[in-house]
Write a structure and sequence with these properties.
Helix content is about 80%, strand content about 0%. It is mostly helical and about 90 residues long. The relative contact order is 0.09.
Length: about 90
């Protein structure tokens, strides 16, 4: 059985890896999207670079929410309230 300090260390290491992955994704976005915009400007008048910027941006927001534990719909507080509700009403 794994002791508490090993478990906490492993979880902290996983969290750091998630945050590092987010910043790598953000750096790639900041380098690639301006390049795509430049290509778009050089080749055509239709703003097609908006589509990858928007799609990748949505993915980046999701990645940030996951890396920094932000979930406005089903966060820790929601989970705690639901547990208390079920325990209080005994609806199981």
């Amino acid at each position: 059985m794994e002791n508490t300090s090993d478990y906490r260390y492993r979880r902290a290491k996983e969290k750091v890896a998630e945050i590092k992955g987010f910043y790598s994704n953000l750096l790639a976005y900041c380098l690639v999207i301006p390049f795509l915009i430049w290509i778009n400007y050089q080749t055509t008048s239709f703003p097609w670079a908006f589509f990858p910027a928007f799609g990748w941006g949505l993915g980046l927001l999701g990645h940030a929410a996951n890396a920094f534990d932000y979930n406005p719909f089903f966060g820790k507080d929601w989970e705690r309230r639901k547990l208390e509700e079920f325990m209080k009403n005994d609806k199981l």
